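hi!! sorry for the late reply, been swamped w classes. u asked for the two structures so here they r. pasted raw, havent cleaned anything up. first the sequence of the first protein and right below it the tokens
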Amino acid sequence: MLDRPAVIRIAGECGFPEAVRWNETRTKEYAEGVFRGFIVEAQGGKP
């Protein structure tokens, strides 16, 4: 989890392009999630 480039690569190899884009564009949120925990939003995200 701390090796962000590896997380991005593995997500891409596993067929999760949305996760790749999210991780590439939200560096701060990713780091905070790793150290403080992620908050899962309801399916569909915010309105």
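now the second protein. again sequence first, tokens right under
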Amino acid sequence: MASSLQDMEIMLYEAIATGNLSSVKRMVNSGIGHNAVLHSPKCCDAATILSTAAYFGNLQMVQYLVEAGASVNYQDPGVRRNALHWACMGNGADVVKYLISCDADVNALDRNNISPLMHAAMHSHEAAVRELVQAGACVNYIDRLRCSALHYAAFHRDRLSVRALILGGCIHNNAIFVKGTPLGTLASIGDVENVKLLLAAGCRVTPEDWKQQAEGLAEDSNVGLLMQRHVGLTPSLRHLCRTSIRASMKGQDVQNKIQLLPLPASVIQYLLLELED
């Protein structure tokens, strides 16, 4: 019995991986639970049927499973990931968008304290990052390595995701356990625009930061000159107000919350980082 069940799980995994929807329907209708966890020799982390389909980015299959009764928020007993985690680890922004529309928990944390947004940033899925930020995913979560989504996006040189995360309220510049900050990473790859945006959002450069982050960075480079100007700089009152207002929104749905404030259009633009100091 155990052997036949294992064979069935392997067959179901293969059907999902190859996009064979008719075979998936037949096996699901044969009695396999909608939230069953599949164990396959090809995947070291066991995932549910829905999560496996989400990982492979098969929207039609995901829709079928959800309509058949699979829970979008069921977290597998192993790594504690839901379907949205797996969709962000795959490459299907349409699946991410669909799961969000089905009330998937955008802030669910897996066993390693990693959220779907962090997985999307980790795997350079810029479209998924934008969908999640727009849906109100918290941009400030930090995993067991003290990495935020901003750390991962900066490390992978995903400039569009970095921008989306900063605009979404993430200004964490804490060092991870093995050393390194988002600002330092962005500076080292010469991403002037996002360094400028991160500083505008409220990231502070202390003399100690500069000493550490300037290693290997030419002082006459665009990034070097930009950061030098901010070392020990006393921020203006309006800059402090912008930083405080954005920080009060706790890194969730920041853009939408700002646009709803009863303030003049020019102030809204400033808070949205559309106007410089």
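hope this helps!! also noticed smth abt the second:
The radius of gyration is 22 Å.
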